[in-house]
Amino acid sequence: PPSCEVGGRGGGLTPPPCEGGGREGVERKSESFLDRWLELEWDDIGMQIRAKTAADVERALNTSRRTLADFMALISPAAEAYLPQMAAEAERLTRQRFGNTIGFYVPLYLSNLCANDCTYCGFSMSNHLKRKTLDEQEILRECEAIKALGFDHLLLVTGEHQRKVGMDYFRQMLPLIRPQFSSLMMEVQPLAQAEYAELKTLGLDGVMVYQETYHPATYARHHLRGHKQDFAWRLATPDRLGRAGIDKIGLGALIGLSNSWRTDCYLLAEHLFYLQQTYWQSRYSISFPRLRPCA
Question: Are the C-beta atoms of residues 230 and 162 closer than 8 Å to each other?
Fold first, then answer.
């Protein structure tokens, strides 16, 4: 999916006040973004977004330091008439931060084994397909082919199968892969803080973990079996990454999964703001995977 890197050194966004209570059925874990999420009310945020006016959009476009309230305006229905101006401002900021440079990374799929049953995913355990996990020699051949194409940044991808594609497998494979690339990221099942810290010693630079949706009822409807059913554990994963000292943390929501992409994107922005303030030593990226109806 396309992604946008954002700075992790300091903030730049100020959250507006949002009233609302807790969420039934979500167990409270240790201090994490979950504490902020419990203060946010899905329907209230949606109403705030829809209430934004053209004047709010113009003010957001013309300010040099945007707040989360400005972000609300820029994703509101009122902003649809300002897409050309928004695109021009996005291009200006991109050039300012990255110049004329485009960074590429390549995914290396290590395994399609998965112990979760998710309604939208091809790896889902209920799908009848041939399962495959790469061994050492197969991984080395894949790395050689990727290097031959000129790529030097790698993302390791697996399904979520803790027993067969878990820490024992990662301990075996990361030392084979890491010396061949300038940076190494992973997109695998959420792990414990100590496990992330151990993988960092093996050369792990970054982790992508997508919440899919910040709406717990929708989340439960689409995650039917497996560890991924635990909404709160997944929501706290970036906190564990930050505490483990992982350099780059990737976030994202699966746009189209819930009934309001705008509300999911706003809560994603809240999540990013919290992480930047709390784990300012890390860098962050945002991805925008999209779910569309089949043709």
Answer: no
